[in-house]
Amino acid sequence: MDLPASSKSEMAYQFLLKQLIEAKIPPEAPLRIPALGKESGLGVTPMREALRRLESERFVVMENNRGFRAAAVTQAELMDLEGCRLVIETALLREAIAHGDDAWEAAILSSHHLLAKATEPAETSDLDELWVWSDRHRGFHRALLAASRSQWLNLFYAQISNHLDRHFFSMFTGDNRDKFLGSPELIAHSRAALGIAHHTKLMEAVLARDEEQAVRLLEEHAGFTRRFFDRVEDQA
Between the CA atoms of 38, 43, 48 and 53, what dihedral angle is there, to the nearest 10 degrees? Predict the structure, then answer.
């Protein structure tokens, strides 16, 4: 039985979004619709519709006479995204702390446990392990915010997080991956910015309903990440 056109378009969108976020399609790479349609098994029309949707979300760009291309990754955009994320995530975290119940606390503990068991970016050269860590890292932050009630802020947060994940993977894949693994300074900074110790402190503050401490740690966490990516760019 053939899938409805709308289902194929959604599947094509999710297929491409994952490829873009995980930098399996690198920044600025050309996007050939016939090849993508064949690779996904979904055909040309759903792929074209998905690309137009991704263009509206700024994951891809359309260039005259050149077709679609994955959007570039830039330091300026990263800084903008991190600033926006911090504003939104801080508001959602305050809301979650105000409304969270026992089930919310249990989910935070569970997500932290999974994150602690994942191999940190500074400790692996295996891309599959990197993808596992990224998925669990995002799951932990989603768990912290799960008791928040603003649908619009959560929507904006999800969109910004997708773009930040794409920046993250672009920094840890391709040529950047070897540069990172060969730099003791970047590895040390990664441990401070992305390691489990800081996430544990953040979790403890949230569970203690210490709103100001939790927000301070969240701001510090974002600051660590920005400084880490600054150093990656400095070594480009």
Answer: -100
